[in-house]
């Protein structure tokens, strides 16, 4: 994965998930995340009873978006992601709690999105050029 993509992921903290719904529509949710650089995975907390987690277990191919919030076209930055939903590993739990120590006191579970593909946009430095990542299997 290109360093610019990793740097962007590390600089942000909220992602939006897109998950297939039972009616073949799309359901979305926003979550705080931490980044597992070694495994290229986004780690987030949620409860197993929530609709987005129940759907993710049924339909583990997830889309996600991370956007930099601004009001100027020149400064648009964002990442579009395709990922596989999994339960977080013990090592990933450590990564998440290092970034969000307060989450240790929650009864939420930790999950991971293993990034399979990503497209990064940064209008300030890349203009119309996009950086893409595709996991080699």
Kindly list the characteristics that best describe this protein.
137 residues; Pnp Oxidase, Chain A; six-stranded antiparallel β-barrel; 20% helix; Split_barrel_FMN-bd; Pyridoxine 5'-phosphate oxidase family protein
Structure notes:
This protein is α+β, with helices and mostly antiparallel strands and 137 residues long. It has a single domain (3-134), classed as Electron Transport, Fmn-binding Protein, Chain A (Pnp Oxidase, Chain A, Roll), CATH 2.30.110.10. It contains three helices and seven strands. The chain has helices at residues 3-11, 51-58, 90-99; strands spanning 14-20, 26-36, 41-46, 61-67, 77-87, 109-122, 131-134. A six-stranded antiparallel beta barrel has the order 1-2-3-6-5-4. A hairpin with a 5-residue loop joins strand 1 (14-20) and strand 2 (26-36). It is globular and about 40 Å long. The two termini are 14 Å apart. The model has no long low-confidence stretch (mean pLDDT 93).
